[in-house]
Amino acid sequence: MSPLLSESLAGLPPALIEVAEHDPLHDDGVQYADALRAAGVPVQLISYPSMPHGFLNFPRFARDAKPALAAVVKAQRKALR
């Protein structure tokens, strides 16, 4: 089930979408961000160049993992205020 197939994305909460350049799902993430924006949903899209799928799971080896995780924590804290 893909949220891209929904009839309407209006009314969804603000979203943080992180995409990795070498992830087979990269384009889906970008399309989802575009669809959310078109529906009036606030979106922060962050793209991580040269990163593979699952890079967040390897903070000791993937240079962008820690900043990406920090962005997730920041977005969650903001959402829970």
TrEMBL record:
InterPro entries hit by this protein: AB_hydrolase_3, AB_hydrolase_fold
Residue ranges constituting the Alpha/beta hydrolase fold-3 domain according to the UniProt record: 1-56
Organism: Subtercola lobariae
Biological-process GO terms, alphabetical: triglyceride catabolic process
GO molecular function (one): triacylglycerol lipase activity
Pfam families: Abhydrolase_3
The protein, known as: Alpha/beta hydrolase fold-3 domain-containing protein
GO cellular component, one term: cytosol
